[in-house]
Amino acid sequence: MIKKYPFYLKSTVILFGLILFVYIIFILKSILVPLSFAILLGVLLNPLVNAFQKWHVPKVAAIIIAILLAIILITGVVYFISMEMGNFSDKLPLLKKKFGDLLIRGQHQIGRQFNIPLVKQQQYIAEAQSGIKPFIASTVGTVMGTLGIIFLLPVYTFLLLYYKILILNFLYESFAETNSKEVSTVLRQTKGAIQSYMFGLLLEALIVATLNSIALLFLGVDYAILLGLLGAILNILPFIGGIIAILLPLIIATITKDGFNIQIGIIISYLVIQFIDNHFLVPYIVSSKVKINALISIVIVLSGNALWGVSGMFLSIPFIGILKIIFDRLPELKPWGKLLGDEIPVRHKGQIWNVNRKRVKPPPENS
Fold first, then answer.
1. pTM score, two decimals?
2. 335 pLDDT higher than 80
3. Domain residue spans in the chain?
């Protein structure tokens, strides 16, 4: 006989388990962050490794060649960004001076319009700066963590690709033989979703970076290519990244240019690019298997940032997509899969149940 426990006891155990799980992944983030990136990169490079092996390249050599190609590509992008940032840093003192002059003019304008004394405004600015310091410290910590990822990522990726069959056999043997077909389906769909999502994401970022750069170059914004590329990278983060991406060129244009015509042009251009991205690039280029609704996207990105910083923000969307695929394949977890998805039912279950009850008329009292 199976013993049934009360709801409050089961919910308490589940809640405690979730708290313990979140605490563990927070404590082990220095290990789990590079491992998570390695899993995504390993799945992305797996078709390339398989292709090399079909060409009779030894397994170890095929893995090393694929990782080296990935390192060359990533290094090229980082080198380009660093060169552009170097040009930006050369003009940083002049930008600081212009920003200071603009800030002083803005303070006098605010003082005249809203009757706020300059001393009070300086106090507000000092308070804002003190609030930004913890953010800067966390950003430095994220940069140091990124250096750890750079050294661990190739090692983890090589080992994951080398022991791929061992890991797959473990997953198959962890379930009953009767469920082997279901496990195979989940693993195949998960691998396909990650591969198509990552390839689509890279292609989308390339197109958005090109469109951003062309628009900013046409408008005459300084550092147009750098801002366009950063905007495409930030665009990976839903909603939040898009806001930051449009603020960066607006700030640069405000500091370096007079008037507001360029700022208006930037807003219009980015809105058009966002429309193209949301209605054409995402539906047709990015994988349709990773469809997460807007509410869950925002919550999961903010939660990822709270747990693992910037790395968690970028990892959160593909991993929640993996969970959705798994949830959709397990009958007990299908409601959670529907909650994560973006398909909105016309009516909720309560309305359907009420309609069904009305159709089944109760028998007369005297029958």
1. 0.70
2. yes
3. 30-162
Tokens of residue 156, six digits: 């983890």
> Which residue type is seen at 340?
L
pLDDT per position as a tens digit, 118-128: 666 566 556 55
Burial class (CB in 10 A: 0-12, 13-18, 19+), 266: buried
Instruction: Please name the residues in contact with 45: beta carbons below 8 A apart, sequence gap of 6 or more.
Output: 63, 66, 67, 70, 157, 161
CA 52 to chain centre: 30
Distance CA 77, CA 84 (A): 11
| C-alpha to C-alpha distance for 307 and 131, rounded to whole angstroms | 20
> Residue 229 contacts by C-beta under 8 Å, 6 or more apart in sequence?
80, 81, 84, 209, 212, 213
Number of H helices, E strands in the chain: 14, 0
| CA dist., res. 72 & res. 96, Å (int) | 35
Which three-class secondary structure string do you get for 310-355? HHHHHHHHHHHHHHHHHHHHCHHHHHHHHHHCCCCCCCCHHHHHHH
Kindly give the interhelix angle for 118-162 and 294-329, rounded to the nearest 10 degrees: 20
The candidate with the shortest Cα–Cα distance to 231, out of 252, 250, 208, is 208
d(CA 279, CA 293): 15
Q: Which of 99-103, 212-216, 352-356 has the highest mean pLDDT?
A: 212-216
What are the angstrom distances between the C-alpha of 39 and each of 95, 140, 242, 247, 330? 41, 25, 26, 33, 23
**What is the pLDDT, as a whole number, of residue 159?**
93
- What is the secondary structure of 109-142 as a DSSP string? HHHHHH---HHHHHHHHHHHHHHHHHHHHHHHHH
First to last CA, the chain: 40
Q: Note the pLDDT tens digit of each residue in 128-161.
A: 555 544 544 444 454 445 555 677 888 899 999 9
pLDDT over 80 (residue 105): no
Within 10 angstroms of residue 96's Cβ, the number of other Cβ atoms is 11
